[in-house]
Write the structure tokens for this entry.
Amino acid sequence: MNDAAIQLQDLEIAYRVRGVDRRVLRGVSFEIGQGESYGLVGESGCGKTTAAFAIMRYLPRNAKTLNGSIRLNGEDMLGMSGAHVRRLHATTLSMVYQNPASALNPSIRVGPQLTEVFQLLGVEKDEALHQSEAMLHKVQISDPTRVMRRYPHQLSGGMQQRVVIAMALAKNPTLLILDEPTTGLDATVEAEVLDLIAALRQEFGTSVLFISHNLAVIAKMCERVGVLYAGRLVEQGPAQEVFHDPRHPYTVGLLRSIPRGGVRKDEAALDTIPGFLPRLGATLPGCVFEPRCGLAKEICREQEPDLIPLGNGHASRCHFHDRAQDLPRVAPARLPATHVPKGKPLLEVVNGSKTFKQEGQELQALVDVSVVVRPGEVLGLVGESGSGKTTLARLLLGLTSPDEGATLFMDGEELAGKVEKRSKEQVRSLQIVFQNPDGALNRRHSVRRIVGRALYKLLGLKGRSKEARATELAESVRFDQALLGAKPAQLSGGLKQRVAIARAFAGDPRIVLCDEPTSALDVSVQAAILNLLVELQTQKGVSYVFISHDLGVVRYISDRIAVMYLGRLQEVGDAATVFGGPHHPYTEALLSAVPTLEGEERTRIRLEGEIPSAANPPSGCVFHTRCPRFLGEICVQEEPPLAEVEPGHLMRCHIPVEDLRRLQAEASRAAQAKTTT
Amino acid sequence: MTTIDEQAAPIAIPIRPDETKVERHERLHLLVRSPTFLLGCILAGIWVICAIFGYLIAPHDPVAPDILSKFEPPSGEHLFGTDKLGQDVLSRVIVGARAVLVVAPLATIIGTVLGTTIGLVTGYYRGFVDEAVMRLVDAILAVPLIITALVAITALTSVGQSSSKIPLILVIGFVFTPIIAKTVRAAVLGEAQLEYVQAARLRNERGPYVMFAEILPNVTGPIIVEFTVRLGYAIFTVATLAFLGFAADPSVPDWGQDISAHYQSISAGYWWPVLFPSLAIATLIIGINLIADAIAQLYER
């Protein structure tokens, strides 16, 4: 095919790390047709970004191309001179990075940065200004003139990414590379940016290489998809076909790891992929996935399979591609049933507020939040960034003390605001699993010391009994005892998180706060950690307060859900009720923003505008500035109370619940009609 | 419980062999192969050997005056010539290494220990103590270091016995404390933000444990770099003080003291009693700085 926009042939790239060449791409071949959108998925460390940088010729200095070729519109890119590559960057190649804040120059206003792109193409200055404004209009920035006068840091993340996309598309490139363009953004903003990219692609007819670890995003955005594992393309084909009829055990494993279609912990357990990604540059004589594959046979160890064509452009690099979907499960199909013993509230916050002072301004991170946690339940905490989820968690833990007027209770007894003032028993009862295990574990301490110290301080255990309990704990979080002497740096992300969980459980806590415990992990590892958390909960009868921006994960694990916006609770209720509806308009918007693998078009509610600043919250209902079901003056004037609209279902909205139910049912019918036609 | 076993087996495969050990090994390998480090070690090593075995290596008695052969230019008999008392310059340079290499490292160690402690306390507790101590540190740093040292040493020696190593070591150590405290504090500020420090609070750890057992091991990199850099400065300070008449022990050969005793003779053409001790100071400091650079580079990677 000569009409390919970009063609990679047997690309092999190595990085020189501490004096040794380590292969990151082991012969990757794929091509993207004119106007086609191609997705590259895989867990971190598989070589996705290296492939993108290789196409851009942006590889770091320690990288070496060992073999293969890259052809852009039929032209060999690897042999090109630096000047030629720069010309291509100015005219035909564009890239959008994960972090828009560092892709824009912080000391130059948006206007000059954008017009420069046009001027490089030879457009006159005035004309370039005009075209820049038009371009910003195209990326749905409503007030381009004003935005052009701003510095990048004065824009929100979503706006920054729009500007970057505008710059990338300004030259009408042949190929646009998007490297995790929405990973750092909130779900509602992500939805908008993805829609925008899809619409612009239609308009410009650009070929797109879309890199993401999020399978659902790829399913939504791409026509064809390539699955990368350890620098090898293990499966390739039309996106819908790959995701619905996967033919490589790795793809099968990935798909089984994601909580999909509103599945809950008591319905089915997630599956995981055992073992770890091979070390960077390890020699793998056979199939790259063989050490982790449940279907592996003798032949897999000895002979690397070719990319076997399966028709319709679908191909799999597996000797047993026809049996891939019979991959034996690693995790049990069902987890032991959880039953929620409704009891007296275990932990309670009444009127919890927290105001931070920042440069003379008062920032209300938390406003009048009252929540209870009952024994043995999982309370999911949902909301965009800046909604106050983490502040609430820190307040419960006593790491941040609340404003005057707030009271905390544990077992009906008042709980001090500062952890240092709480009794040993109270401290022991409330523990946390942090988001990032790298920061949460002391990298100079061994696992044995990390867990042992918690046992000593919280339970007063010493010597042999401490050692015995540490071993027991390690076992209960599935942590190999042989690794107890290891330091965190020697462990993979999933193992580190297991250590953090073991530490949290060391003092036999009654409530464990989980602050995005899986968002720093790859999906297969995330599944294993979620399963472990569910299992520990049933075994030990603890309660969780589970914070996550991933609604699929929250839905999977939570019994009750609390939705937060700008530091205020908007909706509280049983998981089934909150997800089943009627929803608060904000919850409705959050739900419709999440892309699904099934590709079903749900009621699409777009949130407009930015999350307001907590220093200057909107009057009345704080959500009224973005509310898709805005009623009128009352929403601006008066803050609705958090009222019980159904038994156990609280909502902060002026719209009567029956109206919400009717409106949302109508919207969903309309969306269904649209998908069927 | 069968479910647990099913899941346990595959997860327990430790595919990652001792990543840190491999890394440390590769790091050390890199350090040993770095030409900067090697050159630094050779330069500094020569002087360390001189400091330890000086009297054995020296070709002549470094303190034996020979009035008949004073200011003899470098020759086969006296490679570096003789000074105004007819003492062999080469022997004095070799033996003189000890005066510097005892005082400077000890002073640097004192400065590092004190500075690290202050840095940990201010960086971890922040608040009022931090403000107060840091303003004091800024005030001390605003005055040229050597003047602070001179004033302190005059005060100390006038009270106690003169010509002792102890006051010199203490003074240089104290003078270096503020700057080391600043470096350590900056590193601690970053570390204290990490969640493992909060995790420690959530099990009722006391401040000293958090500072010394949790944070300190994670800031050793910058401390080691700072130590080597300060060592270079300490050598320079010791030599300067000796030049100004505050040698640790005036009766023992000392580079700074020898330069001070002869610099006026340069105009008479007797350059050798000044040049060789100066070169000795320069090579030792360059050696130490090369080592410091190599170590700093290693931590930057």
Confidence is low (pLDDT under 50) at residues 1-18 of chain B. Chain B has twelve helices and no strands. The interface with chain A takes residues 3-4, 6-8, 10-16, 18-20, 23, 26-27, 29-30, 194-196, 198-199, 201-205, 214, 217-218 of chain B (CB under 8 Å).
